[in-house]
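hi! just following up on the protien thing from before. the input was this:
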Amino acid sequence: MKKFKVRKSGVHGRGVFCTEKISREETVMEYLGEKVSIKEGDRRAEVQMKKASKGKVGAVFLFELNTRYYLDGNIPGNPAKYINHSCDPNCRFENDRGHIYVISQKSLKPEDELTVDYGFDAEIYEDHPCRCGSENCVGYIVQRRQWRKLKSLIEKAKVKAKAEA
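and the predicted 3d structure came back as:
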């Protein structure tokens, strides 16, 4: 039985919400998709980003499986692709031999939105503003372990902008 539903989200677009209680460390769902080479995944991402720049739907749902393959979650029947990022996530992704599972990090109740840390690199922070609204939000979708690096990059950008002004 599904313990979640996809609907409009206050964080971004659509999101995934609990329909009943989910226990801590429970497997909520599998992230489904087509296994593609890194080269093909990068090509698909570029096409999607071009659509986004033209105001069309352009979300990229690629999940890195390893150094050779992505899982392209942009398929029908993959509700996990709608899980939004949060700087204070309540779920995480786990890669179990090429299968990606969504695991709850805490107990969740009905109407809670499932969120994860997308784990983006701090070097590309400007491309990914965060709208999670958590008390811990750092303003950009950057993996937690790189928050210190992010703060340094932001400070350097401020100094550079001030010098150029």
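Strands lie at 4-8, 14-18, 27-31, 34-37, 62-64, 69-72, 84-85, 91-96, 99-104, 115-116.
Helices lie at 38-53, 147-164.
cheers
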